[in-house]
Amino acid sequence: MSSLERIRNFSIVAHIDHGKSTLADRILEVTRTLSKREMRAQVLDSMDLERERGITIKAQAVRVGWKGYQLNLIDTPGHVDFTYEVSRALQACEGALLVVDAAQGIQAQTLANAYLALENDLEIVPVVNKIDLPQADPDSAAAEIAELIGEDPARVLRISAKTGEGVEAVLDAIVERVPPPSGEPDAPPRALIFDSAYDQYRGVVAFVRSVDGVFRPRERVRAMAQGTTFETEELGFFSPERSPTQTLAAGEVGYVITGLKDVSRLRVGDTLTSAGGPASEPLPGYKEVKPTVFAGLFPTDSDEYPELRDALDKLKLNDASLFYEPETSQALGFGFRCGFLGLLHMEIVRERLEREFDLDLLVTAPNVAYRVLTKAGEEVEVHNPAEFPREVERVEEPYIRATTIVPKEYVGAVMELNTERRGRFHHMEYLSEQRVLLAYDLPLGEVVYDYYDQLKSRTKGYASFDYDVIGFHEGELVRVDIMLAGDLVDALSVIVHREGAYARAKALVDRLRAEIPRQMFDVPVQAAIGSRIIARETIKARRKDVLAKCYGGDITRKRKLIERQKKGKKRMKQVGTVEVPQEAFLAVLDLNGGGRS
Amino acid sequence: MTATAAATAATARHLYVHLPFCAHRCGYCDFVTVLGRGDQHAAYVDALLSELELERASLAPEVETVFLGGGTPTLTDPVALRRLLGSLPRAAEFTIEANPETVTPELAALLRESGVTRVSLGAQTFRPELLEVLERRAGPEDVRRAFYHLRDASFDNISLDLLYGIPGQSASDLERDIEDALELDPEHLSCYELEAKPGTRFTHAHGEELVSQAEAMENYFERVVELVAGAGYRWYETANFCRPGREARHNLAYWEGRDYLGLGIGAVSTVAGRRWRTKPSLAQYLAALAGGRRPEREVELLDAVTQRQERLILGLRLDEPLPLADVEPVLSVEALARLEGLGLAERRGDGLALTRRGRFLGGAVTAELLA
Ligand SMILES: Nc1nc2c(ncn2[C@@H]2O[C@H](COP(=O)(O)OP(=O)(O)OP(=O)(O)O)[C@@H](O)[C@H]2O)c(=O)[nH]1
Ligand SMILES: C[S@@+](CC[C@H](N)C(=O)[O-])C[C@H]1O[C@@H](n2cnc3c(N)ncnc32)[C@H](O)[C@@H]1O
Ligand code: SF4
Ligand SMILES: [Mg+2]
User: Fold this and answer.
1) Does A549 have pLDDT greater than 60?
2) What is the 3-state secondary structure (H, E, C) of A166-218?
3) Residue A595: is its pLDDT beyond 50?
4) Which CATH number fits domain A373-474: 3.40.50.300, 3.30.200.20, 3.30.70.240, 3.30.450.20?
5) pLDDT computed for residue B7 by the predictor
6) Burial B136-148 (b: 16+ CB within 10 A, else e)
């Protein structure tokens, strides 16, 4: 048997929380990759953020041994915002373990992930998990999943990743059903970079799926698309820590330490080959993902702009879907307009920047991309409300096909929500007697604002949701501007549907009035469409301050009080004549962001 | 003595003496106080007098004002108090703080005979229920009685302290307090907004109420100024009002940035760019001075910039303009222009002052003016 015959590469995919990472735990245990002492729950969720939120954010590769076979598994995230992680992982594999929660049955991301695996021609190994749960219904779940992928229900494995029941059978099924990688062990080496990270000491680390030939340490290597060459400092595989080896051979998954300090010189999706004897063709790379949600990111302390740029460059290595370009705001100073794959993605990026790079950030309200035909007949795509022309001929906004799976008693609630959000019914399907799939076409902009929260609360958490962007359609959209004491606050402009404009404007103005401390003069807070004021409040001038309390000779204390007052002012952002604290921006932006998923 | 020390000697024409003893502690009080300890009053007076001897070089031969503050100076054992008053330098303005319940005809006479010229009486409020909230010992009648005892002892310069922003104080409570105070026709009135320090027992008990009242009490300061100034008093300092010529000259000295010497625990002195504050521990203070040593102090050196900053901070509390030349180096010209535009500050001749509205926002305006 050739060495390729003894390799199996697979991803674990599922709807969020169906137990992928827990299954990975059990696999690490039965294969003795980690000792009991090293073990903890969802051990592959190694980022603090993942552990705090109990979700996987980054796909994570790890190599295990099973009955003489080398298995390279990749645990993937389940949340819709991280589908790009899943699709890249799948491209490094020949098989996919499709996990379904026995109590929940197939959910929106089960469908999305199954289709992704099928598109990539992967062998799907269906698994029903959590059979230990009292409310588990493994038969229904198995029937649903078999139906979905056109498989015999008898071949659906039934396991409990919690107790470990059935896990060995899963590994046997992988070996039996997933084909070994096909590659040319003797050809010039080629490896696909499916992910990367920045190591403070060792520079760029590329995560690769080797396809042909063999890579060795201390060899000159070239990235085919970018032309960057470097010497491999170290090769290895994940166990799950980095574990160095002397070779990375065809079919294997592992990492390459490049020593590159300039993060722009290596891109995910590129192909590594030997610089001395290169391959003639690169491997197929990745489709560029298009961000769906945009927001401005600004350092709270304007001096930290260079640090923010550096942090984004480095984070981009570990998050190939991140998009950013410099942006200047009158109110917030220098920052970046960033593109994300959804609101959770936006939140995660922000948190990672703050934690991993010790930054303090302000994020503006998220918006989608608009295609605008100006009065002058020019077509422009706008990612920033502040750049949205005030006079437009026509505006188009992105639409999604939203798939929602709910128990049938909530169909009405979902329909009502989608109608409020300007949705158009597409179709409806009974997945079983109990559960219904609803497909709607919805403006993405309506989903960005508060949609997940609403969906969750109106269906008591039973709905699962997935979407694909399907194109742009004309919409009656207007730009609402906010003015403080007559000065426009560019960072607070929003694009909304004409019908929702008043309510939104009022909410914004109310919140600002509540959040901005009173100044030494009356401050009108106004919302306007063009020159028409549609909402207005006044922050009344302050009438006294603390020093009236002071008596006697402790002058140092008085001076310190004034100094403190002065320092407080420095933390404010000056918007025209008005001082606005960071917190006020945050509160208003939070209102704008609304949705958490 | 070093050359600088010699050069800076004998500059203070104002003397503060701290008498920390109180019969009980009022909930809102944040002063250096000592409860009871009647047996230590004499020792404390001895210590004060030795400290005075040690610092004599800082004090000018002619002292303009003396101020005995507390604590409750009038609670001090009369024999010790008489000895103290007799040993302190004479001054044209000699003030003592008095708590109403301590003022008897005998005490009034003692003060009068000992050279005291001015009494500052801690009334706080005339509403019995508010006095209770403040945990004051005196009732409204004690305040009035104390006032008349002082008048009877022919004190012609009496000041009343009032507090506003007391938990539960309504706008009409405030108005009546002012009426009641004016009824006594004092030469001087100090009206302070009550400060509830975070973490104190008082804030623990009344903090939430204060927060919920904050909006309703927002115009109390303006109201106080309206009523007191309306009765013909001059609003000469943020929290102080007087009949013509009856400014508290001791306090004016602070606002004008003059040097002063402070004696006693917790007392602050500022002499020739050097400020020190004696540690508040009574035992350490007594022990040090009994041994002829200076008590422990925190010292702060004020550089020229800081001195000018203080000049600005303090000077703008007064109604009279502050000479621009004194503060120009620490003044933001842009801020001044902006504040003039907003009608909060103004130039008068070569001087700088806050407008009426500016004075209500004194802290914020000053913070802005500082470059
Ligand atoms: N009772 C029971 N609970 C399970 C089982 N497998 C996983 N869980 C629980 O389900 C929850 C989610 O498990 P994870 O392994 O984090 O799920 P995941 O699919 O990796 O989630 P994402 O990475 O966020 O998509 C955790 O609370 C697990 O303890 C199982 O077999 N039985
Ligand atoms: C040195 S203190 C106290 C003098 C005296 N023992 C008394 O209680 O009347 C002088 C004045 O400061 C004011 N004061 C005391 N505590 C205060 C506080 N927490 N907030 C505002 N003013 C206060 C009172 O008006 C008090 O009369
Ligand atoms: S009497 Fe005056 S100094 Fe003494 S505790 Fe009460 S407020 Fe404080
Ligand atoms: Mg996971």
Assistant:
1) no
2) CHHHHHHHHHHHCCCCCCCCCCCCEEEEEEEEEECCCEEEEEEEEEECEECCC
3) no
4) 3.30.70.240
5) 44
6) bbbebebbbbbbe
| B85 phi/psi in degrees, rounded to 5 | -60, -35
Under-70 pLDDT residues of chain B: 1-10
Residue A170, phi-psi category: left (phi > 0), alpha (psi -120 to 50), beta (remainder): alpha
Q: Searching chain A, which residue's CA lies closest to the CA of residue B193?
A: A549
- When comparing pLDDT for A574 and A106, which is higher? A106
B313 and B206 belong to one structural domain: no
Superfamily name and number for A293-364: Elongation Factor G (Translational Gtpase), domain 3 (3.30.70.870)
pLDDT digits (tens, 9 = 90+) for A395-449: 999 999 999 999 999 999 999 999 999 999 999 999 888 899 999 999 999 998 7
Residue type, B295: P
Whether residues A566 and B218 touch (CB distance < 8 A) is answered with: no
Residues of B in contact with A547 (CB under 8 A): 238, 317, 362-363, 366
Among 3.10.450.50, 2.40.10.220, 3.60.15.10, 3.30.70.2570, name the CATH number for the domain at A478-594: 3.30.70.2570
Establish if B371 touches chain A: CB-CB under 8 angstroms.
no
Confidence of residue A590 (pLDDT cuts 50, 70, 90): low
CATH architecture for segment(s) A190-274: Beta Barrel (2.40)
Contact A548/B192, CB-based, under 8 Å?
yes
Is B192 near chain A, with CB under 8 Å? yes
A274 torsion bin: left (phi>0), alpha (psi -120 to 50), beta (else): beta
CB A229 within 8 A of CB A345: no
In this predicted structure, the answer to whether residue A8 has a pLDDT above a threshold of 90 is yes
The pLDDT tens digits for A54-89 are 999 999 999 999 999 999 999 999 998 999 999 999
A20 lines ligand 1 (CB under 6 A): yes
Nearest CA to ligand 1 atom 7: A19
CA–CA separation, A21 and A39 (whole Å): 13
Q: What is the CATH number of the domain that holds B143?
A: 3.80.30.20
B211 & B343 share domain: no
pLDDT band at A138 (very low <50, low <70, confident <90, very high): very high
Mean pLDDT calculated for residue range A360-382: 91
For residues A10 and A178, give the distance between their C-alpha atoms in angstroms, rounded to a whole number: 8
- Residue whose C-alpha is closest to residue A27's, from A59, A74, A68: A74
Helix (H) or strand (E) holding B67: strand B65-70
Distances (CA, A) of A238 to A37, A71, A198: 18, 11, 16
Q: Does B222 touch chain A (CB under 8 A)?
A: yes
The reported pLDDT for the residue numbered B11 is: 86
- Residue A99's pLDDT band, with cuts at 50, 70 and 90, is very high
**CATH 3.40.50.300 segments of chain A:** 4-177
Which residue segment(s) compose the domain that B362 sits in? 304-369
Which of A521, A550, A563, A577 is the best substitution to test chain B (most B C-beta atoms within 10 A)?
Answer: A550
Alpha carbon nearest to ligand 1 atom 23, residue: A56
Which of A6-15, A508-517, A587-596, B176-185 has the weakest average pLDDT? Answer: A587-596
Options 3.40.50.300, 3.60.10.10, 2.40.50.140, 3.40.50.10860; CATH for A4-177 is 3.40.50.300
Q: Per the CB < 8 Å rule, is A551 touching B239?
A: yes
Q: What is the CATH number of the domain that holds B322?
A: 1.10.10
- Count of structural domains, chain B: 2
Q: How far is CA B153 from the centre of its chain?
A: 24
Which chain A residues touch B if contact means CB-CB below 8 Å?
520-521, 542-556, 558-559, 561-562, 565-566, 569, 577
pLDDT of residue B9: 55
Ranges of CATH 2.40.30.10 domains, chain A: 190-274
Tell me what pLDDT residue A12 has: 98
